[in-house]
Design a protein that fits this description.
heterodimer, A: about 325 residues, mainly alpha, globular, B: about 300 residues, 2 domains
């Protein structure tokens, strides 16, 4: 769903002109992106309702397999019902908070955990990239393992991380469960950062490295003044992938190590109540989408801050 | 770095539109007119002295000889153009001087020191065919890069950058970024950057190679002016005959496979001669162009061939 909304919004963003065009134009393109984004959401909602209205109740079945979903209110609630449900109390208990607020709290918790995981993963990824850029032998020795690390299914070791974590106790301090979740999130986040940053650090123009050599600049001076800034255009997509990885890692890890406060656990819990309250199950899904959008928006903001480093030299 | 070296930016008396306080007479670097003899009178070592320098690339299996037994001396303050067909090793020779490559055999000295030492001492400034500006830095910050790397104090850096920006005529563009400049302007920034530390030797590898003819001629005139103002020796790699003759005191002609020096032509155009449109139309200039062309083709050029470049 979110993917559709994003791709619909994308033309507006890519059409944004270089900075030399006046601010008014830039403002206009922001407005256009916003309008296109809203239109994209409406299009998704329209498609949802259109399918629900036109397709048969039992979905489309070919042979024994259902290729298109059922359109009952149980399987596909009306958009307005789902929205309306957000405003209602989460349960029939007296004094229960409205659903949207509960979901928002869970999103916030997951966002913090994912952010911690992203920061840790990015730091580890950058350090690994730096190490590999420094020592050819480190690249040979480490890169295959880094690639291999991502083939281990997340579900397989999430419970192990949980049980290791629960045994860690230093002084009076105990390893809190959220750090297990963040650790798993960082495990997914570090990989694209390590690979992307390494590629970026190795992408320096030869004329620049020769220039620095002619200045008798050392490895670190060259790294700081030329190779790191030159790596930024490669790094930003890597950070974006890392952020997506951290969000997915957080949600999955919350489910598999039974961490109750986040959106991941809420997805499972509310899905279990779907037979009696189908609209409620969709609320955490919207929450997860918002979580992804916030993560993506943060990286976009980062890209804006680093835009000086994304300039190319005129031909 | 060295404080006892004469400041190359000391202006020549008759060209005094810019820069530093005039130096006392005895400290001013000597400018010769036409002779290409080194400054032996001052006991100063030549800017470049290469003897028997060879360079081969590749593994033991497949060796390519880029340079073979090259002898070349560039006097302090002399402007030498290296010219020759592609693959004659002219760029390689310049890169050896810059210590971007090391010679396979022979000896190479820059100001009487090994090339690696001269690089460490920042005795030369360098400009390539690509401007090679850092796109995220402003024009001023690009020019300041070598000063910054070598720990020049901020105030000094600022002042020097302001001078250089004026010297290359980019006063209004100090805060622009490279992608906002034309190719010629970028190359001017690169030249300003190469001059930042007042080097006694400038190494230039076809710096105008990517520019259109009009811009190119204007840049040549500017470089000629700058080289007079700074008094630095220049090793200038080019494949344009008129460019070589226009700029240089001496044109070194090279041939390919293996790369070696086949001829040297003293242009006889004094440093004090203003390099402008008049010079380009001077019969003496044409004669030297012809002379270099004949040397390049190793023999008199036929009437038909004379029209080619």
């Amino acid at each position: 769903m979110s993917a559709t909304a994003q791709t619909t919004a994308a033309p507006g963003l890519t059409a944004a002109r270089p900075s030399r065009v006046a601010g008014a134009l830039a403002g206009l393109s922001v407005l256009r992106a916003a309008v296109l984004g809203v239109l994209g959401l409406l299009a998704v909602a329209g498609a949802w309702e259109g399918y629900k209205a036109l397709a048969p109740e039992d979905g489309v079945v070919i042979g024994d397999s259902r290729v298109l979903p059922r359109t009952t209110d149980l399987a596909m609630p009306h958009v307005w019902d789902m929205l309306q449900r957000l405003g209602e109390p989460v349960s029939s208990l007296r004094g229960a908070a409205p659903l949207w607020q509960v979901v928002a709290d869970a999103v916030l918790v997951s966002l913090k955990v994912a952010a911690a995981g992203w920061v840790a993963g990015t730091a580890i990824g950058l350090l690994l990239a730096l190490l590999m850029a420094r020592l050819r032998i480190a690249e040979w020795g480490l890169l295959p393992w880094i690639v291999l690390s991502q083939t281990v299914p997340l579900i397989a070791f999430a419970p192990m991380v949980r049980s290791w974590g629960s045994r860690i106790e230093i002084g009076g301090w105990e390893w809190p469960p959220w750090m297990s979740v963040a650790l798993i999130a960082s495990y997914l986040a570090f990989f694209p950062v390590a690979v992307g940053a390494l590629r970026g650090l190795q992408s320096t123009d030869r004329v620049h490295t020769e220039l620095m050599h002619s200045y008798d600049a050392g490895w670190w001076a060259t790294m700081r003044r030329v190779r790191m800034p030159a790596a930024v255009p490669h790094l930003l997509p890597a950070l974006r992938l890392g952020a997506a990885g951290a969000v997915v890692g957080t949600v999955v890890a919350e489910v598999s190590i039974v961490y109750p406060d986040g959106i991941g656990r809420m997805l499972v819990t509310f899905a279990g109540q779907a037979s009696g309250d189908p609209e409620k199950a969709w609320a955490p899904i919207f929450g997860a989408i918002v979580l992804g959008l916030v993560a993506g928006g943060f990286i976009a903001l980062l890209g804006l801050l680093l835009r000086t480093y994304r300039r190319g030299e005129a031909p | 770095m060295t404080t006892d070296r004469p400041l190359p930016t000391a202006p020549v008396p008759d060209q005094e539109d810019h820069v530093d306080a005039p130096q006392p007479e005895h400290e001013r670097p000597a400018r010769r007119a036409t002779d290409s003899e080194p400054d032996h009178a001052f006991g100063a070592p030549p800017a470049v002295r290469a003897s028997g320098v060879s360079k081969t690339f590749g593994s033991r299996r497949s060796q390519v000889s880029a340079l073979s037994e090259v002898d070349l001396t560039v006097a302090a303050g002399e402007f030498v153009a290296l010219i020759g067909p592609s693959g004659c090793g002219k760029s390689t020779l310049m890169r050896l001087v810059a210590d971007l490559e090391t010679p396979s055999s022979g000896s190479l000295e820059v100001f009487g020191k090994p090339a690696a030492r001269a690089r460490a001492d920042q005795d030369y400034g360098i400009a390539f065919q690509q401007a090679g500006l850092l796109p995220w830095r402003t024009v001023a910050a690009n020019i300041a890069l070598p000063l910054e790397l070598h720990g020049a104090p901020r105030a000094e850096r600022k002042q020097r950058v302001a001078e250089l920006v004026e010297l290359v005529g980019l006063g209004d563009f100090a805060r622009s970024r490279p992608d906002q400049l034309s190719g010629g302007m970028q190359q001017r920034v690169a030249i300003a950057r190469s001059l930042a530390e007042r080097p006694r030797l400038l190494l230039m590898d076809e710096p105008f190679g990517a520019l259109d003819e009009m811009t190119r001629e204007r840049m040549q005139a500017e470089l000629a002016r700058i080289s007079v103002e700074t008094g630095a020796a220049v090793v200038f790699v080019t494949h344009s005959i008129p460019e070589a003759v226009f700029l240089a005191d001496r044109v070194v002609v090279m041939s390919a496979r293996p790369g070696r020096i086949t001829d040297e032509i003293v242009t006889g155009i004094g440093r004090d001669v203003v390099r402008d449109e008049h010079l380009r139309e001077d019969p003496a200039f044409f004669r030297k162009v012809t002379e270099v062309r004949e040397a390049l083709h190793a023999g008199p050029v036929s009437a038909a061939g004379a029209h080619e470049r």
